[in-house]
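New here. Invent one.

***
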Amino acid sequence: MSQWTDNAPIYRQLRDRVVAMILEGLLKEGDPLPSVRNVAAEFRINPLTVLKAYQELADENLVEKRRGRGMFVNVGARVALLADERARFLRDEWPRTRATIQRLGFTAEELFAPAATIESTAPQGSKK
């Protein structure tokens, strides 16, 4: 988590990384989030930045604050995130991906074949 980009505020990038950890199963329902102090110290960022990221997660009902104990992943957080991410992919990314697939003339067999198979069937001169 030490690399931040200029594409979005750091709190948003941190929020997105926690979301990715939940989706990937690294943080499960009921698991505590790392403490604000620990995250701030580890990544040398302002504790208020971490708090803002965590607050967004709480506002989205993905985590809950337990007084004196910290923030914990809510039951159903992964299922809700998966549903949102799937809908976002189909709405925002799939149309571009599908257009690229059509433009390049891929067949379903090529798309689902192992990468080595595609490389061996690529038109002459197109290998990198």
